[in-house]
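Bench notes, afternoon.
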Amino acid sequence: MAQTRQILQANDNVQDSLSEAMRHVPAHMRTKVALKFQALFEMYQEGTDWRVPAQCNVEGELEDRRKFLAVKVQQVRCYGWYHRGNFVISHYIYKKQQKLSKADTRAVQENYRAWLQTIGEDNE
């Protein structure tokens, strides 16, 4: 049996960023958005990769030439990266514009560096 992939959180602020992003979603759509993220994460954990560009996009580069992604549900983005088959969530954002902001790139890169330190790895 194949090992289950996990959805991990890079830090303790992930849930706060999700709450902040969801505050911008119209109230009648919040449950739908939350359930869609849940379904996407369960799908990934069960071994199905996300479809590009319908469900995720490669958004930018980390310092060690790895890429980070945005998992998309309506205007909410879940930024993160792959690590040993798992997906690590950096943070969520409500996306007001199509272009990736420098602040989000910086946040993902900082969370990635901190994550590597937390798990005791250098940039591979």
